[in-house]
Amino acid sequence: MVQAHIADLGHGIGLRIPYADGLLAPDARTVLGVDFLEILVENYAPYGGRLKRLAEQAAEQYPIVLHGVGLSVGGPDPLDARYLESLNDLARRTGALWFTDHVCWSSGFGVEYHDLLPLPFTEEAASHVARRLREAQSRVCLPLGLENPSYYVKHPDAPLSEVEFLNALLEEADCGLLLDVNNVYVNARNHGYDPYAFIDALPAERVWQVHLAGHLDRGDVLIDTHGAAMTDDVLDLYRHTLRRTGGISTLFEWDNDLPPLSTVLVENNRARAAAHDVLGPRSLRP
Ligand SMILES: [Fe+2]
Questions:
Q1: Rounded distance from Cα 45 to ligand 1 centre (Å)
Q2: Domains of the chain: total
Q3: 242 CA distance to ligand 1 middle (Å)
Q4: Bridge-partner residues for 144, per DSSP?
Q5: 3 domain residue, yes or no
Q6: Which residues contact 231 (CB under 8 A, 6 or more apart)?
Q7: Residue 186 lies in a domain
Q8: What is the CA(253)–ligand 1 centre distance, in A?
Q9: Which of 30, 62, 230, 241 has the largest count of CB atoms under 10 Å?
């Protein structure tokens, strides 16, 4: 497993374009309390000009990790060579430490769906994803990991549970996990399982990074909106996660209805404070 490169980067947020001026101001990393930035490949890799310079400027000030929604690692079509090339180019320009995408399929039969579509929880699907992840890994210049997505339908006859499927996949692909704690919470509520038992069943040594985010509680269903503050329940599950993983790079995601940067920084600091509860003062900035 490609593990030696995986460092605890602290607490970071996404390099959203409206936040770029604030995040890239002189001394912003220290002043704002942001330890690293995550760059969404689809927002930067295909473009030149200002966006290219923003990504490179961010890399001069922060450690960078890359994230994506377009690999379609579970899809039926051959891996997209242009996507992998643009990922390599962005990785080289930013010195990014790793890239993650979701356990899903997002394109197939020549169609781009612009959504993270769920896979059936079967051994066959786990092997399919693992094989394609290993192929992608052989064609890119940085470590690849996978994220557990949220999902709202599941195959009624699938023989594996979600965590059994995920563990089989991680083992066969021999890759790292971007553990989205909010997704675990949302899925657990929607599909009726214990989120703490889910976390306990994962291989802690494979967790490279954590995602935290807000969701919408509609009563009958939780929607993974990435458009709200974290709930206390998600923060409690994050504390539980840290007791298993120790210090781990943690990124707060806010992707829809973007608030002022200061609001996202509040969430970043809530995550840091939760880590302090578990890990002690090493997780608090001076
Ligand atoms: Fe996520």
A1: 19
A2: 1
A3: 17
A4: 99
A5: no
A6: 185, 214, 215, 217
A7: yes
A8: 7
A9: 241
